[in-house]
Amino acid sequence: MSQLEKAVHWINGQWVDSGETKESHDPATGEVIGTYVEAGPDEMQQAIDAAQKAFKETDWKDNRRLRNIVLTKLAEAFEQAMPELVEITGLENGKVKSHAEIEFEVVPHTFRVNAGLTLTDFGRAMQVIPGSLDMVLREPVGVAGIIAPWNSPVALGVRSLAPALAAGTTVVMHLPRQTAHINHLIAKTIASVKEIPEGVINVVIGGAKTGQLLVDSPAVPTISFTGSSQTGRSISASGADNLKRFGLELGGKTPMVVFDDADIDAYVATQVPALSVFAGQFCMTASRVLVHESVADEVRTKLVDALSQIKVGPAADPSSEMGPLIDRPNVERVNGMVEDAINDGAKVLLRGGPFTEGPLSEGAFYAPTLLEVDSCDFDIVQQEVFGPVLVMQTFTSEEEAIEMANATEYGLAAAIWSRDIDRPLRVAREIEAGTVWINDWAALFDQFEEGGYKASGVGRMRGLAVLDDFLECKHISLGPGRVGDHG
User: Fold this and answer.
1) 463: domain CATH number?
2) Which residues are bridge partners to 249 per DSSP?
3) What does pLDDT average to in each consecutive run of 10 residues of the chain (487 residues)?
4) In the chain, N or C: fewer CB atoms in 10 Å?
């Protein structure tokens, strides 16, 4: 096949072809599909300088109408780019078409909701004592650093980019080298909106070292990061020297809690995509299922049947229902976690695992796996797998189900399955998670906050609260007095 256009950085309104040149690979075959440049300190500093200059020298931070126009046009530009994004994501990220479409269909909505916020984010004013007038203005903090992950760089990058622009910050987007050509198309789509002043949005392709440069820069007061809890802890510690502000959406271990009055067929039909979307490489992957013991046999049987029928294959095959992991080292990592669990006593209901023969053995494919354990102490319960591995446990009461659901350090999301009117809300109030679905999974809307309890994050993405990551509050107090006070 012919190679893709070389992926380069977008800095200060210009294409920047500098840094170390490396190869991109198709995770389905391991074949080279193109080359890209990985940023170093020079490129990152150029991007920070450009964003800082744009913040100081243009009217971007003060011109709400311009920001509204830009966000609206970005929504239109990404809608037009969607077919090409779907194609290149299948090639470089391995997502089958239906999964790529799930990721991209939300992007225009994200831009449009935030376009509305540019015109509706009000401050406050009041008279506290006679003759006084006090007000609070919400002002952009300056340059925002955005660090998006390789599993969904478009949707998760835009999830931070849109509110950062709405708030009036200028931006340095650090996008991962594993998706260099997707990143390049993101930058091309942004560059097509001519109303964006130079330097307002800068897109840099890099790895952990360049991301750390963004975190360490005193010129970047806020970081919006999506990634692992381990990395979130690390960058939070290093950012403390500059008292840096962080918005963090981190790891997850989403439990599906299935009660004895649940619609089991509806649950199983939802569990299939909840495990297989993005091949389980999703912070909200439903990787745990907690089942009332009275319906456990039915759930076991139906899960094994449904998960074993998922057709694993390359995105190039229209019949594929789940693509590969991002690379072969991750196949080895996931399989190692499964093997360790089995050695520790986990019961195998469906082994799945790597493909050792045939054409799929050349890629990073991993068939869905279902294990059952009798304790929350297993590492496979406590640790984020980031692959299509589901772990089942049984419970006997609401209290036990809640205790089990809360038994990990994560608290990003959960789902409750029950036909009862009162039980789902009663249980949802006790689950330590930022999002709880009732008889559903992955219902996410830009109008409502998304984020984690405990080690799953700090702050919120989406909703109204997301703007707080990019704004400062300034109190201005006046004492004009009252008519007649000054003679």
Assistant:
1) 3.40.605.10
2) 226, 457
3) 89 94 95 96 97 98 97 98 95 94 94 96 89 94 97 96 98 97 97 98 95 96 96 94 94 98 98 96 97 98 98 96 96 98 98 95 97 98 97 98 98 98 97 98 95 96 95 94 76
4) C
Instruction: Based on the fold, state whether residues 72 and 211 are members of the same structural domain.
Output: yes
C-alpha triplet 100, 76, 193: angle, nearest 5° = 110
Both 234 and 285 in one domain: the answer is no
Overall domain count for the chain: 2
For residue 349, give the CATH number of its domain.
3.40.309.10
**Is 267 found in the same domain as 395?**
yes
CA 31 to chain centre: 27
What gap in Å lies between CA 398 and CA 293, rounded to an integer?
12
Catalytic option among 249, 372, 384, 450: 249
Range of the domain at 354: 255-438
What does 20-89 look like in DSSP terms, one character per residue? EEEEEE-TTT--EEEEEEE--HHHHHHHHHHHHHHHHHSSTTT-HHHHHHHHHHHHHHHHHHHHHHHHHH
The residue from 283, 372, 384, 450 that is catalytic is 283
pTM summary value: 0.95
Cβ partners under 8 Å of residue 423, min gap 6 = 259, 261, 398, 416
Cα Rg of the chain (Å, integer): 24
Token pair listed for 213: 């440069």
Q: Is 283 a catalytic residue?
A: yes
473 included as an active-site residue: no
Residue 340 and residue 414 share a domain: yes
Question: What contacts 22, CB < 8 A, 6 or more positions away?
Answer: 35, 36, 37, 38, 177, 180
Alpha helices in 344-486 (DSSP H): 379-382, 398-405, 423-428
Phi–psi pair at 174, nearest 5 degrees: -100, 110
Cα–Cα distance for residue pair 271/366, rounded to 1 Å: 17
Count of helix runs (H) and strand runs (E) in the chain? 14, 24
Whether residues 72 and 127 fall in one domain: yes
